[in-house]
Amino acid sequence: MDDNQLLRYARHLMLEAIGIAGQEKLLASSVLILGLGGLGSPVAAYLASAGVGRLVLVDDDQVELSNLQRQIIHTTARIGQSKAESALAAIGQINPECVVDTVVERVDTDRLGQLLAGVDMIVDCTDNFRTRQAINEVCVAQSKPFVSGAAIRFAGQVTVFDTRHADSPCYACAFPPSDNLPTDNCATMGVFAPLVGIIGSVEAAETIKTLLDAGENLRGRLMMLDALTMQWQTLLLERNPACPVCAARDR
Length: 251
Fold this sequence. Notes:
By secondary structure, this protein is an alpha/beta fold. The chain is built from 10 helices and 8 strands. The chain has an 8-stranded mixed beta sheet, sandwiched between helices. Helix 4 (40-50) packs parallel to helix 5 (83-94), helix 4 (40-50) crosses helix 10 and helix 6 (109-116) crosses helix 7.
């Protein structure tokens, strides 16, 4: 690291769990963020400011006025712009050393697999059950971790799926693809603005911890928040030996 980097990341360097070696590892890391909305906004901002060396931002949507109540990486001046390009502009002001690739398209499983092959892990910031199943399939196939978060109304949840560990459940273990889950989203149900900031910040923290193998991440634990009472609950997740997605992986 050069002198500017030593100063920029000084508060990380003081932490025993990070230090110079950990910060250099972050600088050499790459993360794919799928979705640059309410969750993706704090995730992108914190990963860039924390020194993750390369971010791949994937979103085919455009910034709208109704987004600005919670999607804090975007601005009024960038309404109508691609969310990925808007986030790129913001990151350039936060940390110009962060290398950012933008993908302005709706990705299918094959394309997601191509993108994931070039990064260390993925952060799910979407609001779509089928998309999360697709993320899970490629992560299991490539043995790469992903951090998953969700938020609607006043309820949020966050966890880490990491099938590099034999005992770790995958997303399909916890939420079987056959389940007929509701398709509620923020556009139809509403969402409390600070909630996505809380959940997104936890996603960013879990991403950094997973990249560094620091502390204990949320693998095997689903954290659920009721923002009206500000109470957290923890649900333990177990691997399903008959899971249609990950049952065949090494035990």
